[in-house]
Design goal:
The chain has about 220 residues and is α/β, with parallel strands linked by helices. It has helices at about 40-45, 60-65, 75-85, 95-100, 165-175, 200-205, 215-220; strands spanning about 5-10, 15-25, 30, 50-55, 65-70, 70-75, 90, 110, 115-120, 125-130, 140, 145, 185-190, 200. The strands form 3 sheets. Strands 1-2-3-4-7-8 form a 6-stranded mixed sheet, with helices on one face. Strands 9-10-11-12-13-14 form a 6-stranded mixed sheet.
Length: about 220
């Protein structure tokens, strides 16, 4: 029986998913992309008798980590750190964006590289750098579960027309990293954009046109040139 604990939480008006991922035996968990409603995320952990011991951030956009944007203050890692002083793990190329967006100190963020592992209890979480949507976007692989942020959705993928977006990098991240995961891997995306909240990579690869493009040129056409 697996020790992995995983909970998907729908938060905010942009259909974001936050996640709790951790160890059933130690009752410890990390929050993936804490944003919008920190009290609700903490309450979800408490309801399962889980203690939040850290946070993982997929990328710096405010709907995933909080900050002031669009004339609004969105709750995020700043509010989480005000509630409990825990480490926040982010890809090295994303730290400047997170600091600028949220106002947290660089000392609150642990810099990570692709292939690094974060342990919670006896559970290992592998960090995968998947640039393209943003320079430091990262996904989290734990056993056969992949939390993908805005890099990959069940039926689509992240935008490349925002600051830091890069067509070639996202194509490479999808084609040479995520598409090569075993077909039984279950994808847990950063938004509830599809008819199901999660799906196997076998299903995603069969349905998602962005994983079916035969070349970068064909992929560019899908993105509208």
């Amino acid at each position: 029986m697996t020790d992995l604990y995983l909970k998907q939480i729908l938060v905010g008006p942009m259909a974001n998913f936050a996640y709790l991922i951790g160890s059933k035996s130690t009752r410890e968990c990390l929050v993936v992309d804490p944003a919008w409603d920190i009290a609700a995320i903490e309450a979800a952990a408490a309801a399962d008798d889980m203690k939040i011991t850290g946070a993982l951030v997929t990328h710096y956009h405010p709907d995933h980590c909080g900050g002031h944007v669009w004339g609004h203050d969105i709750q995020g890692i700043a509010e989480l750190l005000a509630s409990k002083h825990v480490p926040v793990y982010a890809q090295a190329d994303e730290i400047d964006g997170i600091v600028k967006m949220t106002g947290v100190s660089r000392s609150d963020i642990k810099s990570c590289q692709s292939g690094d592992k974060v342990k919670v209890g006896g559970v290992d979480i592998t960090l995968i750098h998947t640039p393209g949507h943003t320079p430091g976007s990262q996904c989290f692989l734990c056993e056969d579960k992949l939390i993908s942020g805005d890099t990959l959705f069940i039926g689509g993928c992240g935008r490349v027309d925002l600051p830091g977006g890069n067509v070639e990098q996202l194509y490479d991240s999808l084609t040479n990293k995520l598409a090569k995961l075993p077909p039984q891997t279950v994808l847990y995306p950063g938004h509830n954009y599809d008819s199901a909240p999660h799906a196997s990579m076998a299903v995603v690869k069969a349905q998602n046109p962005y994983l079916q493009a035969s070349s970068l040129a064909a992929w560019r056409q899908l993105r509208g040139g």
